[in-house]
Amino acid sequence: MKKLNACTLALFLVLATLFFNTLTAHAQDDEQDPPGRVARLNFSSGSVSFQPGGEGDWLTAVQNRPLTTGDRCHRVSRPPH
Which alpha helices (DSSP H) does 1-81 contain, by range? Predict the structure, then answer.
């Protein structure tokens, strides 16, 4: 009976390891896929800020910066003359 329990435990550990490795590999594939839509900041006038999707910090936007889903841009408008 003890051999059966040891074999069952060993089989369970092997299957659990394979299962978690499969999940980890799938998650890594999702992170490496490029986004479905991409644009770039071609021209800006005035003070323009950029916030990458999923991050809290705003950065100064630069020309030719790739933009994708979730990214945000903000332009400080000037008062009329």
Answer: 2-32
Tokens 């408008």, residue? 77
The structural domains of the chain, with segments of one domain joined by +, span 1-33, 36-81
Residue linked to tokens 């809290």: 56
Whole-number Å distance between alpha carbons of 74 and 46: 10
- Closest C-alpha among 5, 14, 66 to residue 41: 66
Handedness of CA 47, 69, 52, 63 (dihedral sign): negative
pTM for the full predicted model: 0.49
Distance from C-alpha of 37 to C-alpha of 43, rounded to nearest angstrom = 19
Bin 36: left if φ > 0, else alpha if -120 < ψ < 50, else beta: alpha
- Segment 50-77 mean pLDDT: 86
Instruction: Please report which confidence band the pLDDT of residue 36 belongs to, taking 50, 70 and 90 as the band edges.
Output: confident
